[in-house]
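Researcher: I've got a protein sequence and the SMILES for zinc ion. Could you write out the 3D structure of the bound complex as C-alpha cells? I'd like something to compare against our soaking experiments later this week.
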Amino acid sequence: MVKIQFPDHLLEPIKNFLHLKERELEKRKESLAKQDPFTDESRLLNNASPDADANEQFGHATTEALKKEVERKLIQVRKAMAKIKIGKYGVCDHCGHMIDTDRLMVMPEATLCANCEKKKE
Ligand SMILES: [Zn+2]
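Model: Sure. Here is the predicted complex with zinc ion in place.
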C-alpha cells in the first residue's frame, strides 16, 4: 500500500491556516455566546413586556443557529488538523482516495472528497 502524504512545505501553510481559522471560530463562538439574550442575567430581573420576550426568543433562536454553524465548522477544522497530525491530510474519510488538491485549496478543512461529499447530501 502506498502511503500518500503531503510534503511538509505544503502542509505548513495549511496548518497555519487551520490554526488561524480555529482561533477565529473560537472568538466568534465567544461573541455569539455573549449576544445570546438568554445568557444575559439582567433579563431575569426585568422580565417586562411580552414583546421584549418575543424578541429575546427570536434572538436566542438566531444566535443558537449561528452557534451551531460555528460549532460545525470548528469540528471540521479540528478534524483536518488531526489528520495532518496522523499524516492523513488530504485523504478522504469515506473512500480513502486523495481529495482533489483544487478542492483543498478552496476548502483546506475538507475531510471528504467531492464525490463522497455529494453522496452525503
Ligand atoms: Zn471519498
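Model: The chain is about 65% helix and 0% strand. The chain has a mean pLDDT of 87.
Researcher: Great, I'll pass this along to the crystallography team.
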